[in-house]
Specification:
The protein has about 210 residues and is mainly alpha-helical. The protein has helices at about 20-40, 45-50, 55-60, 65-85, 100-110, 110-125, 170-175, 180-185, 190-205, and strands at about 130-135, 140-145, 160-165. β1 (about 130-135) and β2 form a beta hairpin. α1 runs antiparallel to α4. The two termini are about 20 Å apart. Bound molecules: manganese (II) ion.
């Protein structure tokens, strides 16, 4: 058993111009691949841990031996976060959520524009490397951010949507302009995929 790098569900140029082709090639083919390789290295000789789905491994992070726990947090988190990230984007996407997710975003954050502003603010204010998230926590939608590759699963939360604010996610095209990247990112957000993740999270199967 070992973890494997998932294929991108689209071509590396599919998210142009919001996310450029070279960034996608390096981000998926090198960064995400390194998280997977290093996760497998850390779990070498741990068949029980290697057999867990990645979300379960992170939810049960306290069961990982202390000597390898930080490596699993970093690389297992990196694997889970990026697998989610590719899934919730698509070329020609964008627009607005529909159905229960749209209703609950409105109920939780006033309206879609306020929601977007709060996600952007979470991404901008995350100092250094990390992620901005929409999570389901205790049955409620929340916007928050995490450092490095820390996964919401470790805090008992379900990550519905997340945007990578590590410099490797945007630097080639946007350099130091993280707010511009966060503005452009909405054009490739796949709301139907996020709506499916929300339904799964509510059912306890995400
Ligand atoms: Mn990344």
């Amino acid at each position: 058993m070992s973890f494997t790098l998932p294929n991108l569900p689209y071509a590396t140029n599919a998210l142009e111009p919001a996310i450029d082709t070279m960034t996608m090639e390096i981000h998926h083919g090198r960064h995400h691949k390194a998280y997977v390789d290093n996760l497998n290295k850390a779990l070498d000789g741990q068949p029980i841990l290697l057999a867990k789905p990645i979300c379960q491994l992170l939810r049960e992070i306290s069961q990982v031996p202390e000597a390898i726990r930080q490596a699993v947090i970093n690389n297992g988190g990196g694997h889970a976060n990026h697998s989610m990230f590719w899934e919730i984007m698509a070329g020609g996407a964008g627009g607005e959520p529909t159905g229960p997710l749209a209703d609950d975003i409105k109920a939780s954050f006033t309206d879609f524009a306020t929601f977007k502003a709060q996600v952007k603010q979470a991404g901008i204010t995350r100092f250094g490397s990390g992620w901005a998230w929409l999570v389901l926590a205790d049955g409620k939608l929340k916007i928050l951010s995490s450092a490095n590759q820390d996964s919401p699963y470790m805090a008992g939360q379900s990550p519905i949507m997340g945007v990578d604010v590590w410099e490797h996610a945007y630097y080639l095209k946007y350099q130091n302009k993280r707010p511009d990247y966060l503005d452009a990112w909405w054009a490739v957000v796949n709301w139907s995929a996020i709506g499916e993740r929300y339904a799964k999270a509510k059912a306890g199967t995400l």
